[in-house]
Amino acid sequence: MKVLVATGSKYGSTREIGNAIAGELSQLGFDVDCMDASDVLGIHFYDAVIVGSAVYGGLWRRDASALVSDNADELRRRDVWLFSVGMSGVKAPRQETNEPRELTSLVKAHEHHTFDGALDYDRLNVGEKAIIRALNPPKGDFRDFAAIRDWARGVATELRAVAAL
Ligand SMILES: Cc1cc2nc3c(=O)[nH]c(=O)nc-3n(C[C@H](O)[C@H](O)[C@H](O)COP(=O)(O)O)c2cc1C
Predict the structure, then answer these.
(1) What is the CATH architecture of 2-164?
(2) pTM for this one?
């Protein structure tokens, strides 16, 4: 079964989560392509698609949200999982739009999961630093790779169940 894992990531923490999910699925015997959402040429090669994005200002990265919305018809005919990566201490007013929930319902994804991300203050640009200074969230790497691999194993179990139908 061919699976695509695609991510929208600015500073790499979401990309590494995608890599971990792809690695776990490969070990479990799936044929997995893992790439940045902006590099995806089409999704018709895949039986299942997992799309993840970092959340900035309450929204997904544009490359990841565009991958989902531009391919919504094809995605609805496939098994899809979505995940967001964010920091619970960073709340933006636009977060109320709940884009991940809208994308989940648009493509009838099996699930939308949220993982804790990573915030390296020194790498942010001036505008981002100003936002983070104002919100003062906990800084550091809060990614739980054991939980991420667990989630990937859950996806694998569901995929096998779907394939057996
Ligand atoms: C300027 C800025 C805005 C952010 N806005 C949000 C947000 O609205 N919601 C959230 O959960 N996390 C927010 N975050 C946290 C990021 O989503 C988190 O650091 C994520 O791991 C970054 O992923 P990346 O390394 O793949 O770019 C924000 C971080 C920055 C620097």
Answers:
(1) 3-Layer(aba) Sandwich (3.40)
(2) 0.96
